[in-house]
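pinned: reference chain
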Amino acid sequence: MSKLHIKKGDMVYVIAGDNRGQQGKVLSVDAAKNRAIVEGVNICKKATKPNAQNPQGGLVEQEAPIHVSNLLPIDPKSGKPTRIGRKTGSNGKLVRYAKKSGEEIK
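pinned: its structure tokens
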């Protein structure tokens, strides 16, 4: 399992697929499957039985996972999509930085 270029909480831009051009916040990442769930992107309808949260049941709209190769993090400085690099930070740990601006990504 390799390190991914996105983490939970990142703002990302979709570069391919039906949702191309949309932006959103990463809600969760599945590193084993190389997929992420992004807020407001790749919405699908799911039929649900009545339960405590949804006593009526019926169709519920929810985000489906999207492959991480279709996502680019957004540069904190310019607000545009950027590639990611890794370098050792001041504390000796690896930190991610935006290739466009050189800005560190938290």
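why pinned: DSSP finds no helices and ten strands in the chain. The first strand starts at residue 11 and ends at 14.
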